[in-house]
Amino acid sequence: MATTNPTITGNWSLIVAAGDEFLMTLPVASQTIYVAIGGADDSDSDSDAEAPAAGVIGHPLAPGQDGINRALIGPGPVFAKCIDPAASVPVALTAWTPA
């Protein structure tokens, strides 16, 4: 289990690999972020995670909310981005690989 504080920007960023469990919160009252499941690029052998498709908004996570986790968002690679494309926001992320 690892806790980190990645900074989320206005572009989709991969924050949790497919299959890993996580809990993400906004420790500082600032920007709302969107969290969404991406896809997998199956055109080659490494199946890289791909950002959510154009037009996908995602689930909002606003300051003061309890957080978001795998049970709420579902399976797949997890991506996040700020609502404001010019902003950046640190999040509290705890992620782990289930046994």
Considering the chains and any ligands shown, give keywords for the structure.
single chain, 99 residues, mainly beta, 4-stranded antiparallel sheet, 1 helix, 40% strand
Describe the protein's architecture and organization.
The protein is mostly beta strands and 99 residues long. The chain has one domain. The chain is built from 1 helix and 12 strands; from the N terminus they run βββββββββαβββ. 20% of the residues are buried. The model has no long low-confidence stretch (mean pLDDT 88).
Q: TL;DR of this structure?
A:
By secondary structure, the protein is mainly beta.
Describe the secondary structure blueprint for this structure.
Layout: E1 2-4, E2 7-8, E3 13-16, E4 21-25, E5 33-37, E6 39-40, E7 49-50, E8 59-61, E9 68-69, H1 70-73, E10 78-82, E11 89-90, E12 92-96
- Write the element-wise H/E pattern from the N-terminal end onward: EEEEEEEEEHEEE
Percentage of residues in DSSP E strands: 35-45%
What is the number of domains? 1
Instruction: Describe the strand arrangement of the main beta sheet, using strand numbers.
Output: 1-12-4-9
Helix content: under 10%
Number of strands: 12
Shape: globular
Q: What is the radius of gyration computed over CA atoms, rounded to a whole number of angstroms?
A: 13 Å
Distance between the termini: 11 Å
> How many distinct helices?
1
Give the low-confidence spans: none
The main sheet comes to: 4 strands, antiparallel
Q: Residue-averaged pLDDT, rounded?
A: 88
Instruction: Return the structural class.
Output: mainly beta
